Structures
1.
Amino acid sequence: MAEIETFKQENRVFAPPAELARNAAISGMDAYKALNAEFERDYEGTWAKLAKDNLKWNTPFTKTLDESNAPFYKWFEDGRVNVSYNCLDVNLDNGNADKTAIIFESDDAKVTRVTYRELHQKVCQFANGLKSLGIKKGDRVVIYMPMSVEGVAAMQACARIGATHSVVFGGFSAKSLQERVIDAGAVAVLTADYQVRGGKQLPLKSIVDEALAMGGCDTIKNVVVYKRAGAEINWVEGRDRWLSDVVAGQSEVCEPEWVDAEHPLFILYTSGSTGKPKGVQHSSAGYLLWAVLTMKWTFDIKPDDVYWCTADIGWITGHTYIAYGPLAVGATQIVFEGVPTYPNAGRFWDMVARHKATIFYTAPTAIRSLIKAADADEKVHPKQYDLSTLRILGSVGEPINPEAWMWYYKNVGNEKCPIVDTFWQTETGGHMISPLPGATPQVPGSCTLPLPGITAAIVDETGNDIPNGNGGILVVKRPWPSMIRTIWNDPERFKKSYFPEELGGTIYLAGDGAVRNKDTGYFTITGRIDDVLNVSGHRMGTMEIESALVANSLVAEAAVVGKPDETTGESICAFVVLKRPRPTGDEAKQIAKELRDWVAKEIGPIAKPKEIRFGDNLPKTRSGKIMRRLLRVLAKGEAITQDVSTLENPAILDQLKEAQ
Ligand code: 6R9
């Protein structure tokens, strides 16, 4: 495997800076090993102690882990908490009340600072407003909002009253939104009139209107609209309300609703290997515990840090590392509305310099596009900005290639900031495998070692351990507090997807391939082993895109594969058979454009195929199975060297070589 080759050749090692290591929460490899040893000695006892020390409990738990109904594990089951209380109220009691919680920077660079006291008030009023609409504990609330203080407050307000939120990324289409509203059985949608990104106003409310008009959304009683842009929007009397009206006159105090530790804090839909997105359900206490611990361990968060995670609240990274983790540890964080390339590709570096950020967490795809931009224009090169406040850099969402790692390390971190390459997933709730900035020697392209308490391992198809140096499938052997609890409405799919019988039914299957270095035991992720693509760090199911394509009346059949891409990691390549004869030339270009727009409408712009190729048929075996392996080779533009004698229709391969 190419990835393994690269890894074997990668022998640069970067030790944590001495001073950072000295003061770090986990200081040095001995401390890391000692913590691991504690977990080995007493797994449940160590988690129990951490849970007592790091969360405020309304009712303390007496049971730590219940494995009796595996894989439906329960953590801290008889304890009661409130997540919003742990993020806000605790900071009013511990001297952080006047500390800045959020430095919000809008697309057009207006800066708003919100203290913990102010955020607490805002969330309480929001929560009381939701209650006044009849929204209560256990209800599901869909949030379709831009990056904003209000977006974070919306999530916190739901948590405060025990409503389970389901945030839908603002780039998803009306159809995707409708499907999620229906699956979650949501009672309300919280949205904004528009979102503002890259100097453009993009509609949100009109997409909500469209989604709800598609039918099946009768559970929705209220649509609450945050006025971001103030432009004209459609209004449905009796259903739609301005957020400002909902919170007007509401008390600034809202007693938190104490919920069981296992109470579903949120559902977040993510792509799997079938056409239908999965509603990943997370707990309250276990989830928050790991958010807190990883803020301390992976980011080594300190009271004076200015922390910035560039993710969107529509993804898991924005949940754990914007909406919950940073607040629960009383951090000051930057929340950014816009995009990294507006008004120019120096925006991130300019913001780091202006706000004196100390911890910066972003995705490899962003880094790679900013490398390109800096190469093309010296003015947006990070060396033009004062980035000297930075002390820790992070990466998330996809493998970071060693070249991008080195550029990030040298040009952004000035060779003094450890890079935490954090491997994790929507399903894991928080970081799983990552360097610790004050302990782990880093190797570019490797996420290094599991965090304490995380029993990550590499096994073969039958669940047997694979020796270091050989590729296999990544699993987690023991349950951990922030793990997925179930798939909303589909416990059977939960068992089948993550705890397959072949592996014994109780160990967690991540869906990624990995290899451990022979000498160091360091992990390198080699990519998904299922039909899930990773485009710019966004998960996309090939089946999802195929279903969208065949839903178009022109399309007879479609197969989607990933193609390696320098900037986005992978790109989407679709092979399409039309109901009419195979188009060529301008007609092919025209139809390809139509289909791209169609997919954007069905799922969202992130799912648009970069390439569409038309054939009279797809390469199939005699039994009618599409040979995706061949399609992947064709997509890469490589010559087919495999035996194609089992193909029903080898001549078709020539047609599919060229993109339209
Ligand atoms: C947090 C997040 C999860 C998938 C995961 C893997 C890929 C994430 C990675 C990484 C290599 C890293 N992934 N982080 N691969 N190195 N540091 O991204 O969640 O959107 O659910 O995606 O992303 O393939 O399985 P999610």
2.
Amino acid sequence: DRQKHIRNFSIVAHIDHGKSTLADRILELTDTIAKRDMQAQVLDDMALERERGITIKLNAVELHYQANDGETYIFHLIDTPGHVDFSYEVSRSLAACEGALLLVDAAQGVEAQTLANVYLALDDDLEIVPIINKVDLPSAQPEVVKEEIEEMIGLDASEAVLTSAKTGLGIPEVLERIVSDIPAPSGDIDAPLEALIFDSVYDSYRGVVLAVRVKQGIVKPGDKIELMSNGKQFEVTEVGVMSPKAVARDFLMVGDVGYITASIKTIQDTRVGDTVTLADNPAEKALDGFRQITPMVYSGVFPVDNAKFVDLREALEKLQLNDASLEFEPETSQALGFGFRVGFLGLLHMDVVQERLEREFNLDLIMTAPSVDYQVDQTDGTQITIDNPSELPDASEIKEIREPYVKASIMVPNDYVGPVMEIAQRKRGEFVTMDYLDKYRVNVIYNLPLSEIIYDFFDDLKSSTKGYASLDYEITGYRASDLVKMDILLNGDPVDALSTIVHKDFAFERGKAIVASLKQTIPRQQFEVPIQAAIGNKIIARSTVKAYRKNVLAKCYGGDITRKRKLLEKQKAGKKRMKSVGSVEVPQAAFMSILNMH
Ligand code: GDP
Ligand code: MG
């Protein structure tokens, strides 16, 4: 029967090790791309898409493979996002599979990024098929790489498939191994529907398109579905598979991977990891592992040109259509004017959003240093939550401040436990436990303040473990800490967008560092600019940006006119990402100086 012939898998690989090339070969060998009628359909779909101006990209394709045993198998190849900030999304994509192909470059060997995802796959009890790719290269060392796989991952690599995705060598064997090694999905078609959402995209024509893995039961157009995390109900308008374009089907059943549309208007309703069930015959409980994803860090986002405020709002709204984790609300800063307070999953997510806003929407932005959120008990008995340091009340009005703490799991090969512990201690970490997962890897667990790990913790970890550490963390709650607000004054005036909240024990050291960093980033002006760090009324660090020694244009007078013009143009370009704060011109980099103070 159908279920026995389904194989659901992902490809886990470091960037450039050949994942896309292997996927192309698999598509070719299974005739998913080459078939003439397929081709026509692909073109039709594209024409339609062009008319409607949309593209749907769901990270799963269905393939049909005729195996050596004469039977036809249904493969679902599920792609995983490659970003650290999205490790939760990776884990949900893997939870939609029974197996994973571990692809390692025969010349490069096992690399850090691979490890993090393999560990996730192992945690999910996936069957892993090791593949050593690029064996056609003269520098290939498949035997060495086999040993590495065994030592670094603790996986038997004696049966690894040797391939060249470039020449096609070994690919037929890969397909056979998918059939023989990766188990068929279990589950019961007669049980109430349980479908895992592992991806979702917004389509202006169909509303939200959910990528799901059906774990139990069956779903058809017309069914009334319910999302188990929030109880919202919708009527299914279409189900289907990506092959590789969307192809409608009569139903999706247990073991299937495909899409569901149900006139869902907002992607915020459809969180990755949630379970879809039937409203009239619901599952008893949701599938494991659902996590409400909430922003971890907040930053102020301001247009350099205040007139672009409305454009910025429209751009954020557009991005939000496809990014359920993006949150924002209006914010006003004395220094920077009107903008938005935006919540992000982490610093990489923040970078991605900034880049998209600037590139796709052509906006010039100033972003303030990221901050976590704080709970403040005030002396008048009220409690407030702030995610913007400038909003912290006066010290005399504060009874207690609590900051978010995380439980961090750091997985490393056991040679690197020492350096990892040293970094965690330095970041106010509290050691919890250490587990040996097998002969080679250790899971070190610490309680840490979130504010200490959002900046450079992961970079520090990586550089002191040759890149082999993987980090995962979740918020466990809030704890009272000895925290103070540090203000920065430029030319005697406090700049709200530069305020930070720091631990008392680190205040002096960090005040000095931020002042030094600002001195480097703020360019010389017509006048001297004193920079001060203050806690309350007390100045804890100071420095000065000297005035121009002489008019830089003076030496051009009477001289080379093009040189003068070049100089003026250069100054103008530099101004693009500058903001006048009072009388001082401050570049974007200055608002990130806090990142250099740790
Ligand atoms: P991805 O980043 O993992 O998706 O890697 P790609 O599939 O884009 O491959 C990265 C580069 O390696 C490309 O230039 C490919 O042509 C090349 N490549 C992939 N597989 C092989 C192979 O088996 N042999 C050789 N020599 N090159 C390969
Ligand atoms: Mg690729």
3.
Amino acid sequence: APPAIIAPSILSADFGALGKECSDTINNGADWLHVDIMDGHFVPNITFGAPVVTKIRSHVAKPTEKHGKGTFDCHMMIAEPKKWVKEFKNAGCDLYCFHYEAAISSTAAESPEATSDAKTSPKELIRYIHDQGMLAGIAIKPDTKVDVLWDILETKDEKEKPDMVLIMTVHPGFGGQKFMASELPKVAALRQRYPELNIEVDGGLGPGTIDQAADAGANVIVAGSAVFGAKDPSEVIAKLREAVEA
Ligand code: DX5
Ligand code: ZN
């Protein structure tokens, strides 16, 4: 499996001191920052948009290599993922992870050629994200079957291949929810077919749930409340890493 990547979700950080929270988190041993963007439509909650990403970018050095330390992993829980690609690129996002569910409803509606074959629209969006110079991720909610990803992952065209798949282990919208172990067979099925794929899990992860996720084959670990709620965030980050590397 690819190397462990620990990506604390700043959703549980102190939004009044976000710049410092971000730089502290990197200094505490995090690889990436997981940046949750919610629009109040795709999910029943609102966080922040590109102007905030621009500001926190100035507190965290850009990664010097693909998937490197300081990567901004933007989890786009938004109804119109295509619309915001350029804006987030300009704000300093490195990895733009959109939801499959949003892509098939919004890009299919936007683009006349996509309506006849909605399945091709996630690939078009991945190509578009790559053309803008970002890595592309694709996320699925607990109610979406992993099978929808096979066609996308099987593409022969590198430009249309996702750099990461995100399996949600809670219903997106809020931090601090209970981990859904029911989602782990999706991770295991992905890992069995794709030994080198970056597989991210998000929701309810912490020292008590990491072993199950790591055993299933996840290597990119998001944790919000477990990191930011801890007395010693660096200890939690180290524990998560050890569990994935074990
Ligand atoms: C939930 C977000 C998560 C959230 C995770 O919709 O996508 O990234 O911050 O928070 P915890 O780790 O507290 O479940
Ligand atoms: Zn997230």
4.
Amino acid sequence: YQAKLQNGGFQFFNKSIISTFLRKLDLENELRWAIAKNQFTLFYQPQVSVETGRIEGMEALIRWNHPILGPVSPGEFIPIAEETGIIMDIGKWVLKEVCLQLNRWLSASLVVPAIAVNLSARQFLAPDLASSIHEIVHQTNCNPKHIVLEITESSSMHDIESVLPILHELKSFGFQIAIDDFGKGYSALGYIKQFPIDILKIDKSFVQELTSDSKSAVITKAIIDMSHGMDLRVIAEGVETLEQLECLRRMNCDMVQGYFIDRPMPTEQLEKHYLNEV
Ligand code: C2E
Ligand code: MG
Ligand code: MG
Ligand code: MG
């Protein structure tokens, strides 16, 4: 690149465009090996009941620690994994890992709340999504009732006709379904009525403006009331302050997840602070 730049040909590209491009190429190449090289781990973030403060769920969040690049955030690499299709393998890896972890916890006689796993929009394009998920729970001998599949609103929007039968199939296996990041992106309410969902997660952008922007508060309250009217449980994401928690309590929100409660953490820490024996 330097030589070409000196020749003058690419001088109109500025340095930051080139480094962004190179970074992406690097990540893309490295992502292909990340599973085989054991570079992924899962962190777990507690979801607690607003009423009791007890843990009622936890979300599995992938972490990538590359030996040379260091930690790379999912916000940066998940979009690349989606673009390249590598998300298909990552998705399977995450679910299998969660199943194995669940088994370890259960066989240690720990009380384990439901574990939420993120599914990417792109995974719904695989015609064998449901069967590959079934294969994983079957292989690991895991009961899907312990697992919540989180799908993002935007992903499920595109093509209701093709997503709907897949969701019904996943429900029939025993999984719970949550809509993630609700309110962000293209909100069409029609699909909520059609989708077999159990949980709705309010996007953190609303939660974070809850106490500073009255419109965000009105929307949050409306989402909570609407969810209850449809027998869904509501989780508020990104709760960072006591004021937000108190506000959500007044609004009858069921569960909260966020830094104010706790950060995503490694399994050992979660066990120590949140899991008790039967
Ligand atoms: P998400 O599914 O909405 O997950 C919640 C994100 O919010 C996580 O970011 C979490 O660490 C962060 N978070 C939790 N509490 C707070 C808070 O109080 N304040 C703020 N500002 N953030 C908070 P993370 O782990 O960086 O993941 C980002 C996104 O990457 C996730 O958003 C999800 O869409 C995706 N992702 C993470 N793990 C996976 C995975 O295993 N598979 C797939 N397909 N996507 C994943
Ligand atoms: Mg999520
Ligand atoms: Mg998500
Ligand atoms: Mg979310």
